[in-house]
């Protein structure tokens, strides 16, 4: 019995040894990065600061409430959940392709009846282990498909990391926008209160015949204008809150008092070199894995031009009677190789190979574009890092000057040395300057978050 099993297993072992001996896929070479060797930095990067990709988001963001919101988003956000499930699906597909490289062995039972030359009927029953249509992968077709599935799986994993990084940055930017909304609401409410007080004074002067109705209408217009801005700010805050709720994936917990946009500080980040992006940007790594998969598909397409050999075999009990199965001396085996060489396929294999090569060229272009996009994103964020701080300082200086101008105009108006028109102009200018200062600070902080994201920060987690 052991000798019979040995004779049966020998052809199968030889088939496995021959399977996957070669691959027709082109040798993969990473394309050269189609960008400059350095970023067009407008300001020197801090030399003592760690690379963004090595800074965990728990360290980059100091605000305790923001950390809580990011943790909730990573646990509940549906986009990230879909990205994780895509990994599970890609892993299963890779396992299917990998399993194709090995024979599938199962229990089989069959029965057949056939006429003989003397018109007698022969009946045969068999039961045992069976291998059905195992492809002997001499030219690497199955192996190439497995390599492509593996690359697709790795690309999906990188896509999840990119979604993770993007989610961290999106939550941070939405939170900063909410803090800016709170500051603008507070500013608008104070402005509205001040204009109401000014309206009372103008109304009193109008009732006593000191000012004209034109001054009164201008004061009313100024108050109504503040109410318009207040309604706009309330709507904007509600929309930003709804966005944050969507990102977090559940109702946003109540906020403790104390956090302000003006009190939020984020670290300056060094740019590094464009070549660093190839290893720290998961979207670039995902594009490269897609290129590797497309390269492997060419090997599978080339193998279609060569003979495809499949093996079918079985080993077990064979008997002419059903009751005779598994009795002593009933052992039998079969081994049936089959080879198919394509001759006339009406250009199908050539078209498949052409499609695979075009897919590889598309993947190269997409990989190069992902590098160029990353280069531009980092360059834009660096330009912002170099200029937003100066813009904020200048805008705050404008707001301080407008505040002083308003105070002087108010004193002159109350003393009768200036017209109400001068006071109105000073009020409008002050309010606009204060709003612009808040917006400039928001843009500066959001640019730092963006720079952190585009440099690959946000994936590293504290262990």
UniProtKB/TrEMBL annotation:
Pfam families in UniProt: OEP
Entry coiled-coil feature ranges: none
Keyword annotations of the record: Lipoprotein, Membrane, Palmitate, Signal, Transmembrane, Transmembrane beta strand
Record-linked InterPro entries: MdtP/NodT-like, OMP_efflux
Principal location listed in the UniProt entry: membrane
Membrane topology: Lipid-anchor
CC per GO annotation: plasma membrane
Single GO MF descriptor: efflux transmembrane transporter activity
Signal peptide: 1-24
Location in or out of the cell: Cell membrane
Family that this chain belongs to: Belongs to the outer membrane factor (OMF) (TC 1.B.17) family.
Protein name: Efflux transporter outer membrane subunit
Organism: Massilia cavernae
């Amino acid at each position: 019995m052991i000798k019979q099993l040995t004779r049966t297993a020998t052809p199968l072992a030889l088939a496995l040894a021959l399977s996957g001996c070669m691959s027709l896929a082109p040798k993969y070479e990473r394309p050269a990065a189609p960008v400059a060797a350095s970023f067009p930095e407008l300001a020197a990067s801090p030399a003592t600061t760690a690379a963004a990709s090595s800074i965990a988001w728990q360290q980059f963001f100091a605000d305790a409430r923001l950390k809580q919101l990011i943790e909730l988003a990573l646990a509940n956000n549906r986009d990230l959940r879909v990205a994780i499930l895509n990994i599970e699906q890609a892993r299963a597909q890779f396992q299917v392709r990998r399993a194709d490289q090995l024979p599938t062995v199962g229990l089989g039972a069959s029965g057949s009846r056939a006429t003989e030359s003397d018109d007698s009927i022969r009946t045969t029953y068999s039961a045992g282990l069976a291998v059905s249509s195992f492809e002997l992968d001499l030219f690497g077709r199955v192996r190439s498909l497995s390599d492509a599935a593996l690359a697709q799986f790795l690309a999906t994993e990188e896509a999840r990391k990119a979604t993770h990084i993007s989610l961290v940055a999106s939550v941070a930017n939405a939170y900063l926008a909410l803090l800016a909304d709170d500051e603008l609401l507070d500013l608008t409410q104070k402005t509205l209160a001040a204009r109401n007080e000014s309206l009372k004074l103008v109304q009193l002067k109008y009732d006593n015949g000191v000012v004209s109705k034109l001054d009164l209408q201008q004061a009313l217009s100024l108050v109504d204008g503040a109410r318009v801005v207040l309604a706009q700010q309330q709507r904007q805050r509600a929309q930003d809150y709804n966005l944050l709720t969507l990102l977090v994936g559940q109702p946003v917990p109540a906020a403790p008092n104390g956090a302000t946009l003006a009190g939020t500080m984020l670290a300056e980040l060094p740019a590094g070199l464009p070549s660093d992006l190839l290893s720290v940007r998961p979207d670039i790594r995902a594009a490269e894995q897609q290129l590797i998969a497309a390269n492997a598909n060419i090997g599978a397409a080339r193998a279609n031009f060569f003979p495809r050999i499949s093996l079918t075999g079985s080993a077990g009990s064979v008997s002419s009677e059903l009751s005779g199965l598994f009795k002593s001396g009933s052992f039998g085996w079969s081994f049936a190789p089959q080879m198919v060489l394509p001759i006339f396929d009406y250009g199908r294999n050539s078209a498949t190979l052409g499609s695979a090569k075009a897919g590889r060229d598309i993947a190269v272009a997409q990989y190069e574009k992902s590098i160029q996009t990353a280069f531009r994103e980092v360059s834009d964020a660096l330009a912002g890092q170099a200029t937003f701080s100066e813009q904020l300082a200048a805008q705050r200086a404008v707001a301080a000057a407008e505040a002083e101008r308003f105070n002087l105009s108010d004193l002159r108006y109350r003393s009768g040395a200036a017209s109400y028109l001068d006071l109105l102009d000073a009020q409008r200018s002050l309010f606009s300057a204060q709003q612009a200062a808040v917006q400039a600070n928001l843009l500066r902080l959001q640019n730092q978050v963006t720079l952190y994201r585009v440099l690959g920060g946000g994936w590293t987690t504290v262990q």
